[in-house]
């Protein structure tokens, strides 16, 4: 448990933000599929990215390709490696944490089966662990649902140039987290892949990725917690290094969202400066569709709580199959502050008008890094807050607690 005590609410500081886990992981798969290596500068220090790096290094340096790999709680690593190993000569088993064994992967495995991949479930059908006998895949045309996880589509797209006949991927149902696919395609094209997106079909030609050194930009998802800190402080000006206005990351929409809540963003000199506007009239009811940016929903839920507003969030269908059922987890923890909620499988309504400033609340994190980081800034309102299992932030932002101490002097 970590107890946070906030003695002041007039804040200022400078942070060099952790780099993007999403970009880092895509680049690692591209590099692994490239004939010659290249340098990925500023690779994410997150557990997820470092786990993927370790497994790829072990695999590529092994003399035989018969291995058991444990990805722990890293969902992106599990999905990307499932596709990667399917098209490489190997015999591997991929497993993970207890929660990972509850996270579905059937849609991706079914798509790989259509491409001729040899993937089997070793325990429960539709879920990890997986046994993979990798081989050269011909590619071709496949259909896949687009409303479950964009990571399934990304995993297939990343390996597509290495397939003999490329890939024609047709998705059904409305896409979720579409900006993550834009990110994937932009990175693929940067390294020489030919990608065409027409209607609900994405076509990738057979080719070789070209090696080139690249620097990973900072993580906009992680920036959400600093926007929240700025919002809940009395006065605040923060400099955040490494973020750019022209970003591959869908969560860069943060600048627009928080502008409506009274936090101004100024771009320049390789980063941003965020400032809380004085005497800003905040709307009493907030409505937003998180279909394209589900990872920042928890941050905004806590913002609504701290501002004592009402809100309706939509586009949350993917939150139930993340590190935890994030909708239920939010409901449980918001209730500790007397915040009423109503939820469906894809929506969350919040009524924080009777928010209770309780100093003795322990936030359960449910093994979810975003629960810890989203709720920590609420201590600026209550004076103090306790976070269960604080090391869970290592999954995406290991430096979070040090940065929070630097800015808030708690």
Structure description:
- With 410 residues, the chain is an alpha/beta fold.
- It has two domains: 2-19 and 218-408, Alpha-beta prism (UDP-n-acetylglucosamine1-carboxyvinyl-transferase, Chain), CATH 3.65.10; 21-215, Alpha-beta prism (UDP-n-acetylglucosamine1-carboxyvinyl-transferase, Chain), CATH 3.65.10.
- The protein is built from 13 helices and 21 strands.
- The chain has a four-stranded mixed beta sheet. A four-stranded mixed beta sheet has the order 4-5-7-6, with helices on one face. Strands 8-9-11-10 form a four-stranded mixed beta sheet.
- A hairpin with a 2-residue loop joins β10 and β11 (201-204).
